[in-house]
Predict the 3D structure of the following.
Amino acid sequence: MLASITAIRPKSNAESILLLKAKTEAMERLATDTEEMDEKVALAFCISAINDAKKLFGDQTPKLVPVLRVAAQVALRFNQASRAVELLLKAEKISEMAIGTDDPAGRFIQAELAQAYAQAGQASKAKAAKDRADYLEKISVAAIEGGDTLGSNEVSDSNALYQIIPVFFKTTRVMTSHRDSHVSFGTSRDDQNDHYGVSYVSVPKKRDIGTIPHPSVFRLDLRTDPSRHVILKEIVEISDQNDFWKTIKRRLTSTVRKEALIYIHGFNQSFQDGVETAATLSADLEIDGGVVSFSWPSRNNLLLYSADIDEATADRNRDALCDLLSHLAAETGAQHVYVIAHSMGNRLLLEALRLMGNTESQPPIDKLIFASPDMESADFTRAVGKIGALSKRMTLYTANGDLALNLSNKLRGVWSQASRAGDRDGGVKPTELLDVVDASKAKADLLGHSNFMHLAKDDLRALVWFGLPAERRCILMGKRSEGWRYNPASPCTSEAFTLASLYFRRYADGVQALSQLSSLGDSRSRSASIILRAMLVAKK
């Protein structure tokens, strides 16, 4: 595996960054594997990864810190304690320059330094590092305490810079004994029990829609700041499934629209990734109800693509998701259910929906949204053809190019000729029930794999909020028989379309919304008024 990674020659800066991620994940495996490994090869591989990081980011950048830390763990595996100490002291110096000496994020480096000093036989320094880690741990616990539990569209303080969003979850991941809530659930499957609960995620109010800015806890690139970062603050387990349904029902009872959004994550995702994405979608789509993250045991490792495929097609995970989809509306009183699956999560979703189709219970799913499906186009088309009765509207978002999937294929030595459903040129045809939308122009992330998140500001809102068919969403170009392209252009700009959607959502009355838009008097509001009138015609 090390040889195949080293042989790759990236063709762009984006591919270089992704290759560095793959090297870092390979080092993580080196640090924990018990299999025999040539020490010189392993240590040389670590040096090459560090040099790559320096070339990409510079030798004093905080982005170098994670690479130094994992290289130190590899050194410890081969009893190179002095080398590990050297690497960790460099990481400590860089991180303290970036975040200061009292940021809780520093506790991870201090704990690792204590381990390295102990292996090097320097007991006094090991104790000092451990004491420092314990002190920063106390600061960390204090930092996440307090704060009101708010809904995605509730405001307790108009001056607040962020909101706390409760994300309900169901997971088949094994529960760990780790104190850190970010790793409460691991990357392997629990074959005996489903786990239920609610996680509390803080989301900045001033944030570009579709983005998930992260704190320094793992990347050490900035100070942890809830006004700027999405933060998983706390996880509370609900031991009984009936209590889980009752908790969601209580939340929906207090809302007007009684909406429920289910999000299913994709390949190379942790439990934390899933709930944070669900929280930002809830905030961006202003879900008036509850959001649920279904978290299947992705290995959260770019090198373990095949293992993720196994999990995405496992009966255990399919059955658990089928149970969630089948009972959510009936048990909670949700009047509108939206389901969004991303990447490899689409395989799991379609398997669960197929299983539901063989039962008498068919709960109404208002919208099924397939975002960048990581599966063969032919398989996707066949599966969608069998589950049409389960949803009032289905939408496939595709894009041109997917660096994450391309590099995964290279790492595995696979050059499949089969087209992908999430590829713009994948060949999936629209039907009366399925809209196919090319979202390439909404590209907002480095890898071109999460374009649908950016659409939350306009097209995804119109789809979820109003159920408008693609023909009536003027930011889309094309026609039903050929598919659609996300292509906002004057007079239907993204800004004008967003304004029209927001006013109609806010006032829930077309006449009043048009009146308020007219009172603004600027060119954007005039364009928004024209767009809103077209929306109202579409809804009749």
In short: The CA atoms of residues 111 and 133 lie 6 Å apart.
